[in-house]
Known about the structure:
Number of domains: 1
CATH class: Alpha Beta
Radius of gyration: 18 Å
Oligomer: single chain
CATH architecture: Alpha-Beta Barrel
CATH topology: TIM Barrel
Structural class: alpha/beta
Largest sheet: 5 strands, parallel
CATH superfamily: Glycoside hydrolase/deacetylase
Strand content: 5-15%
Order of helices and strands: EHEEHHEEEEHHHEHHHHH
Shape: globular
Amino acid sequence: MICLTxxxxxxxDARLTEFLAxxxxxxxxxxxxxxxxxxxxxxxxxxxxxxxxxxxxxxTAELQTMRRMFPVATGWRSHSCVFSHLLAxxxxxxxxxxxxxxxxxxxxxxxxxxHPMGTVWQLPIYYMDTFDxxxxxxxxxxxxxxxDKKLISRAIGAEGIHVFDxxxxxxxxxxxxxxxxxxxxxxxxxxxxxxxxxxxxxxxGTFLQELCDxxxxxGAPSLGxxxxxxxxxxxxxxxxx
Length: 241
């Protein structure tokens, strides 16, 4: 199974409406939201909170605010994938079923794991665009290059749940590397036309489009994480051992 997920950092309703109109998602995606968006009206996508847990900040207030903002959400992902045992307990005690914060970049056959501290499940991330574009900064000299198409072909049809994580801002800008993003970020926030900002080569946006095209060709639509987890739990309950 494949789950397309999106973190809505730096998005407002106008930009998100533009994103949804320009990028057709094959199936149902999960959006981890920094705020409520009217743009999701009429869609069937799963929405969940994306809290910012900064050093020295009041985490409890942020967690409670986001819970009130998304009272029926069953999933959770923090900025920068901040997570801990105590957070796992808090999530379970406050009605969440899963978190998606653990990174397993490129690992095939990923399965959810039940966290030992509480009732929450962890849905690891198979691919994240920010990890990929940062290869050029942190993996200098490596043979691994960004936007490796094998990351797509290995995940489609593989056993397990493969969570892809994209940021609409990077998809819209077609970000190829961090320097490009930093040069365009403020112009994006100022609502400059995306046609004037978008990178014309191969970047995050073209990688996502290739992923979606291959999913459609394989008849493998995206599932929301909550739906994928439910399928996994139900299948595991009837599996030997």
